[in-house]
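User: Structure with 6-O-phosphono-beta-D-fructofuranose, tokens only please.
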Amino acid sequence: MGNQIKKIGILTGGGDCPGLNSVLYGIMLKAYDAGIECIGILKGWKGFIDNEFIKLDIADHDDLHTVGGTILYTSRTNPFEGADSKEERAKELTKKFEDLGIDALIAIGGDDSLGVASMLYQFADAKVVGCPKTIDNDLAGTHYTFGFWSAVQLASNAMDNLTTTARSHQRVFVVEVMGRDAGFLAMYSGISAGADIILIPETPFDLEKDVIDVLKKRVNAGYSYHIIATSEGAYPNAESLDRDFKTISKKKIDKLPKDTFGNPLLAKLSMSKIIVDELNLRDDLKQEFQRNGVVFECRNVVLGHTMRAGTPNSFDRILGLRFGLAAMKLVLEGKFGNMVSLQGNKIETIPLSEGVKKKHITPENDKMELRDLLVKIRYLSKQK
Ligand code: F6P
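Assistant:
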């Protein structure tokens, strides 16, 4: 058979995510059953380079699938950073399998971490298998990543809860939701909580038309409090940025620092704070509120890391276990260079090179239409 697997390594890379431990447990269940030893490589690709690992004995980890975070720790280390030749670096890195004493590796991560696994396979034929993880749900090739629905639920609950304080004070709350440059988290949690305006990166917004105008129409229709859900990566279209924004310029946006994989650190911008600052400068908006008996008051709330925190929900526990089981089976079958994915309700196998591609909300996604109707119909239906 030529696929002599006795010991495997598992690593978790990128931002932590509810369900990581569930995947680990799924892998460990199948590995134990097949008589395979598991080690956990610590801190993602950092531990892979530095030979940092722990022995994973399933007897020590009962019900690990119910626990949040990752017991293997994680990092955003990019082992290809600064490499002149990706091929050379991939070959050097693949020698680490021997140092670690492993016959195969399961990498659990988002596009960045799985991109590393994909290059190890492409350039050095490494025995790697991937498992797609991110609360952002922005990975092509899988309908959902585990962790996404737990994060959606947390953000939706936060917005539900914020309505009571928004109502009590008759305030506008701008709630900033994670997701980098993909709008899945803001869109799904915003629709779920019935947010009044939902801003996502895929549809650059017009401050005048999509925010100020809608708030004016809503206050005229009798609404005295409002929840705006915004992706951390939402940004205005070029025309609006130029015309409506006094507190930020394109130059400032372009100058954002980047992480080790080259992604702009969008959260540093705090779009929710910028929107609040801009709205506070608008006397016409304040007057419209005043005319309707409401004092204009606006606050921002950044949900940030609370969205990744805590235990996975049942969907993510089960999806994590299923992914772990399927990833271990790929190893046993010698199907390296692949990753597991969810297609409909089936776990399928796709090449890592396909799976690491990014995914965004597209215009034909019915959530786009739902959002637009949800925002519009409430104030339109109440117009006298
Ligand atoms: O990719 C997951 C994610 O949670 C993004 O939504 C967010 O922008 C980023 O990670 C935050 O990363 P960090 O925890 O490194 O600040």
